[in-house]
Amino acid sequence: MDDPSYPVVNAHNEWDPLEEIIVGTVEGALVPPWDVILEATLHRQDLWDFHKQHGGSPWPQELLDAAQKDLDEFICILKAEGVTVRQPTPYDFSRPFATPDFESKSSCYALMPRDVLLIIGDQIIETPMGWRSRYHETHAYKDLCKEYFRAGARWVSAPRPQLSQESYVEGFVAPQEGEPMRTILTEFEPLFDAADAIKCGRDLFVAQSSCCNRFGIDWLQRHLGPEYRVHEIEVYDTHPMHIDATFYPLAPGKLLINPERIQRVPEMFGKSGWDILVCPEPMMPESRPMYNCSRWICMNVLMLDEKRVIVSKGEDRLIQALKGWGFAPIPCSFWNFSTIGGGFHCASVDVRRRGELQSYF
Ligand code: ABU
Hints:
The chain is built from eight helices and 17 strands. Helix 6 links the parallel strand 12 (254-257) and strand 13 (275-278). It has helices at 36-41, 48-54, 61-80, 142-150, 214-224, 267-271, 316-324, 335-340, and strands spanning 18-23, 84-86, 97-98, 103-104, 117-120, 123-126, 154-157, 197-200, 203-206, 229-232, 247-251, 254-257, 275-278, 302-303, 308-312, 328-332, 348-353. It is globular, with a radius of gyration of 19 Å. Gamma-amino-butanoic acid binds at residues 195, 241-242, 244-245, 293-294, 296-297, 342, 346.
């Protein structure tokens, strides 16, 4: 950073020029231990058995090696594009733990900082995550948070959830395709992952999911105060988890949407002249096992500025579409990382983008 007077943490949207980012790590990653919430998040039921059998153990080495190779390429591109890359502190995720309300065989990983830390302006918010096995995941980021705090950032934690049985709908069964949308969370306490929200200056867009309830959205709005408007987006997803493969403002006036999950774009976009960019059908083969997300993870790109966008190699339809929409795509191999984790947006959290808080509506 050239200018020492500039905030060390500063992120108001998804597209201001990116200067510093935290990228997750494959090191120590474990298969998430089986928990009721996995039934609500995993799109493919045939993968439940894998989690039931291997949950709490390291991912097979060949999957980890392949994911590491993708992550190395991602980091290499970021650095070559002038972005400072930070990574979490190594943490032993294998230790079992218990609270008065639940027990977990282990933690999971620090693959996806986007879920754990919500950065709004100069503020880092540790989020009240809904997965019991991710309860202590924030520990892998504490060193970075302390460093950013000492350098001037604000740093808070949302109310620590209890994640007792009262947080989850008893006997929950995820809807079949075409059935009305429902989610596993009750309104017992505020819950959300950082990736359930997406930033667009003074406006934030959030969708209820298997990690985010209405109470969490209300908490976020009240915490951020009247400077911000938190909008709940209606999505259709039988296994909803996060908004960043569903509804993604890529640049001023350009909103990328998942055509299967978004039936109605809020009027404010049309009224303000935004282009609605419909994500083409993913190209990842359907046969590829996806242990943590869906093929729509192709939408989970990362903007380096209003033009440059890191996008998965192999997603040629999306790459062509992005070019046609005026972007400059930078392809990076990522299907192997996505197999056990998520996309570029999931695998990172932008710490500093050069820009000011403004309204785009
Ligand atoms: N951030 C993860 C998105 C998961 C999915 O929609 O496939």
